[in-house]
Design goal:
Blueprint lengths: L10 E10 L6 E10 L4 E6 L5 E5 L6 E2 L5 E6 L16 E7 L3 E9 L2 E8 L2 E7 L1
Antiparallel strand pairs: 1-2, 1-6, 2-3, 3-4, 5-6, 7-8, 8-9, 9-10
């Protein structure tokens, strides 16, 4: 999706997916879904080619991967960058592209700070800044 469509998007909630394996702490989020007012849900994840995928889709359900663990979908940690911005609207979006990959990062500006989403070695990385 064209990420500029996110300007004005009011973040009502956010959910994420995590990989759980045995006694280890959950890894992730692998995906995040930004849930806006009026039923719009934006999925942010990484592609197998290292790109950052931003698309309008609803969260999937978790699934079992047998001996490799399971993927769960639900509320993300209170420490996750997006949690601080629930109830706020996105003021600006800035994308970063790589010539051979496409979009590799996106920074969302909120009234009280910014959240950077990027694909790093195939993993989704979320960071916040004031």
């Amino acid at each position: 999706m064209a990420t500029q469509r996110l300007v004005g998007f009011r973040l009502a909630d956010v959910v994420g997916s995590h990989h759980e394996y045995g006694e280890h702490a959950p890894v992730g989020p692998l995906d995040v879904w930004l849930i806006g007012d009026f039923g719009v849900t934006v999925h942010v994840t990484t592609g197998s080619d290292g790109c950052l995928i931003v698309e309008e889709t609803k969260p999937h359900t978790g699934y079992d991967m047998g001996a490799a663990g399971r993927v769960t979908v639900g509320m993300i940690s209170r420490r996750a960058p997006f949690r601080d911005h629930i109830g706020e609207s996105i003021l600006a979006v800035q994308d970063e592209h790589s010539p051979n990959i496409g979009r590799v990062a996106m920074e969302l500006s909120f009234p009280t700070g910014r959240v950077r989403c990027e694909s790093w070695a195939g993993d989704l990385c979320l960071t916040s800044a004031p």
